[in-house]
Amino acid sequence: MSETSRAPIKILAFGDSLIAGFGLQNYDGFSEQLSRSLKRDGYHVIVINAGISGDTTAGGVARVDWVMRVNPDLVILELGANDGLRGFDPNVTKNNLAIIIRRIRAKGAHVLLAGMRAPPNLGDDYGVAFDDIFPDLAKKNQVDFYPFFLDGVASKSELNLVDGIHPNKLGIKVIVERILPTVKRSLEKIR
Q: Which fold is adopted by the domain 3-183?
């Protein structure tokens, strides 16, 4: 049976404005660029954009059951950036992400957790506590892990919109190129 005669693998990109494609044309967003890259490499996938600008981990808890109605095979979980920008208690963020991971797995989907880093203006103690959330959760829950969603893009003006926070289409291209090997490893575990 050929790869294309099977049902496509459903990937749900579940996150905030970084997934939603803030300030970008639909064609240039993360989900769309990831879909094109995977298809180019021979993967039979559908990538569903479940990003909402401004979303927090609490918002993710509130909507995870709803977004899981699409029955994805893999969920790329990218939430927490807005928690960090707002200085939320890292323990609350960690607990919310743990709830989301449990609910995703309860529906039978595989999880790829994308890490985030605290903004430097909140101090070293906050930064350490926040930054440790993601590797700790990945290890404890034994989920696939990509350490920093904005790797290679953060703080590079040429890869971000004028706000200096949201990636432009070239920044999204860098993100997709860097996360692609991890996504492929996750996909190999599914089929």
A: Rossmann fold (3.40.50)
Residue of 110, 144, 166, 186 marked active site: 166
Instruction: Kindly report, residue by residue over 157-187, the tens digit of the pLDDT.
Output: 999 999 999 999 999 999 999 999 999 999 9
pTM of the model: 0.95
Domain spans in the chain, listed from the N-terminal domain onward: 3-183
Catalytic residue among 17, 31, 35, 37: 17
Catalytic: 53? no
Whether 35 is a known active-site residue: answer no
Active site residue 124: no
The string of pLDDT tens digits covering residues 45-100 is 999 999 999 999 999 999 999 999 999 999 999 999 999 999 999 999 999 999 99
Residue 178's CB: how many other CB atoms inside 10 A?
16
CA-nearest of 24, 8, 3 to 176 is 24
